[in-house]
Amino acid sequence: MNSQIFSPSYPKSRMRRLRKSDFILRMLTENNLSTNNLIFPLFVIEGNRIKEQVSSMPGIYVYSIDEILYMAEKCIELGIPTIALFPVVNPELKTNNGIESINADGLIPRTVIEIKKHFPELGIMTDVALDPYTIHGQDGILDNNGYVLNDETITMLTKQSLLHASVGVDIVAPSDMMDGRIGVIRQELESNQYKNTIIMAYSAKYSSSFYGPFRDAIRSTNNLKKGNKNSYQMNPSNIDEAIREAAADITEGADMLIVKPGMPYLDVLAKIKEKFRMPTFAYQVSGEYSMIKAASLNGWIRNDEIILESLICFRRAGADGILTYFALEAAELLIKSK
Ligand code: PBG
């Protein structure tokens, strides 16, 4: 068989010349991963000296504030610029409207103040959403039929954002998918002197079963019961809609965008990055972490290689950075490989 029929340039061109050895592979690496690209999500709970493993996320823990400080320090040592905080709220404080989310003396404000006191240089990002605080586990306020009310929810999210900004949060990240919330939050931040608070909008957030272990971690699985979030999070089959969501958030005043989940949605990430050229982040969510971890703990895949491969794929697809539960492990691997 004449291979020239299929590859007219062969043998003048042999792609494998450029893969023959380490020096040339390194010279031609198109994308890089650095610890600067990583955001580490951390779960915080009330109490002292608590470090409890999330059962569906081996290696990931829920920490009390005193223990979170060690993790914050670790991130700084490893060169991870930012952490993302998620509260595990005492069940007794959960209500229908999630009012605890705007308690100035609540868990998140106290955690932020404590971290900033010790480590002012560490970037802190907080989730703006009601689900950790509601009895029903939904991200908003419900009407009598159980429908999540958009505008009433925004009022609460805006107060939550202002509270977070007031205690020194650097990046507020609305993860609720209500319509118009970025605009209202931006306007209120502006008129309350929080002009430099960054908004990282979960623009394309899909209604995904990959969030399962996260809901275990923040203990909202039992609240949500058999419910779903299809009336506000996006349908996994859609991509045009993701572009419209991103466009809306940008117009309303978002500084950065998130696509979530991560690996199954790289096409969405790539499209949004290409179209808007905004700082765009991927969230490699809990279920993705758990799948990789479970397989590696079983010896079915190579843990370190898969972590780094999955993260470089986000960079190749256009992510400026990645929120990932692998941030610590990845940073250690990156430092070791230097
Ligand atoms: C809450 C929120 C969720 C995640 C981040 N913020 C869960 C959800 O929408 O139900 C998921 C993160 C993960 O799975 O790692 N609004």
In a nutshell, what does this entry contain?
By secondary structure, this protein is an alpha/beta fold.
Please explain how this structure is put together:
By secondary structure, the protein is an alpha/beta fold. It has one domain (32-336): Alpha-Beta Barrel (TIM Barrel). The chain has helices spanning 22-27, 65-78, 107-118, 150-166, 181-191, 212-217, 221-224, 240-252, 266-276, 286-297, 303-317, 327-336, and strands spanning 38-45, 51-53, 61-64, 82-88, 123-128, 141-142, 148-149, 171-174, 198-205, 256-260, 280-284, 321-324. The strands form 2 sheets. The chain has an 8-stranded parallel β-barrel, surrounded by 9 helices. It has a two-stranded antiparallel ribbon with strand order 6-7. Strand 8 (171-174), helix 5 (181-191) and strand 9 form a beta-alpha-beta unit. The protein is globular, with a radius of gyration of 21 Å. The model has no long low-confidence stretch (mean pLDDT 96). The site of ligand PBG has 11 residues, from helix 6.
Write the layout of secondary structure elements.
Elements: H1 22-27, E1 38-45, E2 51-53, E3 61-64, H2 65-78, E4 82-88, H3 107-118, E5 123-128, E6 141-142, E7 148-149, H4 150-166, E8 171-174, H5 181-191, E9 198-205, H6 212-217, H7 221-224, H8 240-252, E10 256-260, H9 266-276, E11 280-284, H10 286-297, H11 303-317, E12 321-324, H12 327-336
Parallel strand pairs: 1-3, 1-4, 1-12, 4-5, 5-8, 8-9, 9-10, 10-11, 11-12
Antiparallel strand pairs: 2-3, 6-7
Helix pairs in contact: 2-3, 4-5, 8-9
The main pleated sheet reads as: 8 strands, parallel, barrel
Might you state the CATH topology name?
TIM Barrel
Helical segment count: 12
Bound molecules: ligand PBG
Integer tally of domains: 1
Termini separation comes to 45 Å
Which stretches are poorly predicted, pLDDT < 50 over at least 5 residues?
A: none
Q: Which quaternary structure do these chains form?
A: single chain
Helix content percent band = 25-40%
Order of helices and strands: HEEEHEHEEEHEHEHHHEHEHHEH
| Shape type | globular
